[in-house]
């Protein structure tokens, strides 16, 4: 096979150029709503990431109590200097469990999105480039999955796989694979008719080389936005699984399961068992949504500048 030179990167201007333009956009004065939202989102997500890193260390070192241990504490204790967010029905510290839940949520969500990305993007590229029977079969399979309600599909997968961190990520992964597939497949089907792809084929380049060297960089541009949106949605779906008792084991601090256990507490006035896990879930979803808004504006800006410079 004749080796094809790198040549022009295609209509997006290349990943390196896009990153440079995006960094300049991110550093410019806060004169746009998208820039403000992006920075707020980065700060909010960074706080949750910091909690995910330091909480296991603080718990292991004894600075904070075990989130699953509450025998020495009174159940349903109101917020106080001893327990800032109170305790739940088992005497467990609500504040510690809520902060520890950040690491659990991020682990499951990041693993689920990474798996969906690793499966959906290659399948979408192969389907869009190959066409024919392969394309029809993959589209039929993905459309079948896509028509099912997200939470219902996640519930079925979680029920079949069982309760564990990896299984919860797999259940969420199946939910989001069709979204990456549909987006990448449509973009690949359009990009394969471009002149630079036709020229590469005429010089003897094979499908793998064309997909990796020419099409990947052009169809991948919208994926970061979808990643942030899927991550925000996955936090809610994971919370829904936990609320239904199908997410993670009871020994794992998880916001959805804590909200489920708070059902019996809120009617008797123990509001703190539901308030803080709910706020934590809302904050992470909001931060990821703000981050997605900023990423979308960054990519739009980079593409516009790239076209203007050409």
Blueprint (SSEs and pairs):
Blueprint: H1 15-27, H2 33-61, H3 94-130, H4 132-147, H5 150-161, H6 165-191, H7 195-202, H8 207-219, H9 223-243, H10 255-261, H11 272-309
Helix pairs in contact: 1-11, 2-3, 2-11, 3-4, 3-6, 3-9, 3-11, 4-6, 5-6, 6-8, 6-9, 7-8, 9-10, 9-11, 10-11
Number of helices: 11
From N to C, what is the helix and strand string?
Answer: HHHHHHHHHHH
Q: From the helix content, strand content and strand pairing, which structural class follows? A: mainly alpha
**Can you give the mean pLDDT?**
82
Summarize this structure as a short list of keywords or feature phrases.
310 residues, mainly alpha, elongated, disordered N terminus, disordered C terminus
Describe what is shown at a glance.
By secondary structure, the chain is mainly α. Helix content is 71%, strand content 0%.
Structure notes:
The chain is mainly alpha-helical and 310 residues long. Helices cover 71% and strands 0% of the residues. The chain is built from eleven helices and no strands. It has helices at residues 15-27, 33-61, 94-130, 132-147, 150-161, 165-191, 195-202, 207-219, 223-243, 255-261, 272-309. Helix 6 packs antiparallel against helix 9 (223-243). The longest helix has 38 residues, at 272-309. It is elongated, with a radius of gyration of 23 Å. It starts with 14 loop residues before the first helix and ends with a helix. Mean pLDDT is 82; it is low at 1-15 and 305-310.
